[in-house]
Write a structure and sequence with these properties.
binds P-hydroxybenzoic acid; alpha+beta; eight-stranded mixed sheet; 13 helices
Length: about 400
């Protein structure tokens, strides 16, 4: 089997890339290790930046999102007995976000790919990517009980943090920058009306809480919990009581339909390319979910990559592929900082002193009293533009050095 672009991973990054390539007339094969039902049910975040909304519409995956997604024009910050709204359009010149679950994005992209795209194989277990620095990289995988090889012009690893693609970058060339956090999130889905019309991010002495939603009748709620927490330690009534205390508001309660613990991690692997193997999304970088950036960063990566492949097909030039890693990493590090900032400003580190807590409260107060400080949060939250500075290899340095 041979294809132009072999894509490892059928999550949002891999599926969106396949759609963008299909639109550009470039063929691809997507290999996903799990079952379709598994990837369609995996609970992930639910905030789409405008650029993500736009790209989903452009590949034909916007119809259900536009019907069922909820456009949000702000978030609420709660701390120290106060509530303050961050008004996105006023602070960013019209920006907003869409609440539409990643699982729904994945369902829409899978349906499209199966209806009119290239091959998408489920239960395809990739063991290795060979020949990254040759012109015929090969993916070795098992499918339907048989060992198979897919030779490619290029390979893209969209197989997440634990995937095999990252290892195609030789260890001597690969750098991973990481931070772990001394807390996790307990996340629930509940058949209950959302607490409020917008998302609430709450700082409290008891720990962080986030009230999000999936629809006017389904809430998605999170509590900061210690690392290693077993969800069984959290019977439903304890969860609701704790949410009420941290959000400083009695919530509408309803049946809890999903409950899980999510670790928090920041990680960046550089470079995002070796030879003819490229990394995108969680295969290259992880952000803690507090900034709602994970899916949006993955989408930004594959937008840049699809454009680079289209440029190669149209002109024969690999220039945009050559600048892919640098172009993406600039945006990645900005999102890493924002996600770290949101996380460390809103959570209670078990080792933190009262001095640290006062610093957090001072920072939150600053955001709620200075339009400049609020705009900094709002701009990062709604998403920085995929502008020429991010796309052209920065300030020209890379291009000049190579010319
Ligand atoms: C979610 O709705 O799942 C969600 C929203 C905002 C976040 C993280 C998760 O920052």
């Amino acid at each position: 089997m041979h294809t132009t672009v072999g894509i490892i991973g059928g999550g949002p990054a891999g599926l969106l890339l396949a759609r963008l390539l299909h639109k550009a007339g470039i063929d691809s094969v997507v290999l996903e290790s799990r079952a379709r039902s598994y990837v369609e049910q995996r609970q992930r975040a639910g905030i789409l930046e405008q650029a993500t909304v736009d790209v989903l519409r452009s590949v034909g995956a916007g119809a259900r999102m536009d019907r069922e997604g909820l456009v949000h024009h702000g978030i609420e910050l709660r701390f120290d007995g106060r509530a303050h709204r961050i008004d996105f359009p006023a602070l960013t010149g019209g920006g907003s976000v869409m609440v539409y679950a990643q699982t729904e994005v994945v369902k829409d992209l899978i349906a499209l790919q199966l209806a009119e795209g290239g091959p998408l194989l489920f239960h395809a277990q990739v063991h290795a990517v060979e020949g990254a620095d040759t012109d015929r990289p090969t993916i070795r995988f098992a499918h339907e009980g048989r060992e198979q090889s897919l030779t490619c012009d290029y390979v893209v690893g969209c197989d997440g943090f634990h995937g095999v693609a990252r290892h195609a970058v030789p260890e001597v060339l690969r750098r991973t920058y990481e931070r772990t956090y001394p807390y996790s999130w307990l996340g629930i889905l509940a058949d209950a009306a959302p607490a409020y019309g917008e998302l609430i991010y709450a700082h409290s002495a008891r720990g962080f809480a986030l009230a999000s939603m999936r629809s006017p009748t389904v809430s998605r709620l999170y509590l900061q919990v210690p690392n290693g927490t077993d969800p069984a330690e959290w019977p439903d009534a304890r969860i609701w009581d704790e949410l009420d205390a941290r959000l400083d508001q009695p919530l509408v309660r309803g049946p809890i339909t999903a409950k899980s613990v999510l670790p928090m991690r920041s990680s960046v692997t550089e470079p995002m390319r070796h030879g003819r193997v490229f990394l995108a999304g969680d295969a290259a970088h992880i952000v803690p979910p507090t900034g709602a950036k994970g899916l949006n960063l993955a989408a930004a990566d594959v937008i840049v990559l699809a454009e680079a492949f289209a440029h190669l097909a149209a002109t024969g030039s690999t220039q945009l592929l050559d600048t892919y890693s640098d172009t993406c990493l600039r945006r990645v590090w900005r999102a890493e900082h924002f996600s770290y900032f949101m996380t460390t400003t809103l959570h209670a580190d078990p080792a933190q002193s009262t001095f640290d807590t006062r610093l957090q409260l001072s920072q939150l107060e600053r955001i709620t009293t200075s339009p400049h400080a609020a705009a900094e949060l709002a701009e990062n939250y709604v998403g920085l533009p995929l502008g020429p500075a991010l796309r052209s290899g920065g300030h020209g340095t890379t291009a000049r050095l190579r010319a």
